[in-house]
Amino acid sequence: MNCYILALSLILTAICHAQEDLKANLEKTYGIWRTALINKDAATWQRVTAPHRSMEVKNRILSEKRAFPATIFDLPAPPPALGGLKFLEAKQNGATAKSAYFGKVDFGVGGEPTDNMLVLSFVRGAGGWLYDKADFVNLTALPDVRTELAAGDLSYLRGVPEAQPSGVVPLTPIAANPATTIAKVYVFSPGREVQVQVNKISRHRFANAKEAEIVIGGAQQGLNEVQYSIRKLEGGTGEEALTIRVYLMSEVSGTKPIKAFEYQVLEKGKFDPHGTGNFHLDAATVRKLIGK
Question: Is the whole model's pTM more than 0.85, yes or no?
Fold first, then answer.
């Protein structure tokens, strides 16, 4: 029995040391990443950011016809500091890791911060851990959970998907060319999941949504392709109205966006689960949208 207790003690000690090492390494990466943003250090930001995330950020900025990398640093406030937050746990799954914190997460947007959760995500690169993203978990409606976390009870954390490393490193997106014309995909899809792909590079997923997203790469002069798929979500009737649109966005004050593509289904109407359409962007429209 004594040997068993000794072995168990050694295992627990090893796990504790591994947790502390992982915590230290992840916090070091986040600290470097955060400092790079504050100091507007593009080279360091690129070095410590996960490749898929840095390419995603670059593609979005270029698709909005903004300057890269200068726009990276155009923030209302620095990313939240970890000082003053209670460390909950660090977890690793293969080449992915998460670290979770509890406390007054301050994004610097005004108001008095309250106790909530911050989960940081990382992927492993050739030289160590790279920063991916941060997820803010609002606990306003869960006062009991706040009490538990403050006391060190991590039961709630086990059921938070954002806090579980997946073990899968996302693929790095294809580099997009700077947009000629800014475009957005708009979807109204109550009771349904809609996936849209524009020009085989800009992929979007909407679930029970009424929202718009920027088209990566923008709209191209000439022919543009729009592919979509639709499926009913649990709880949906399959008879809800549906709208998929692509808008061309104006850069001129007072000029409204132009609806370039639309697929629409009326309530109780039949819909195609898969489809492909297109729209044409000519030079005259490009000039109108940019004010020339």
Answer: yes
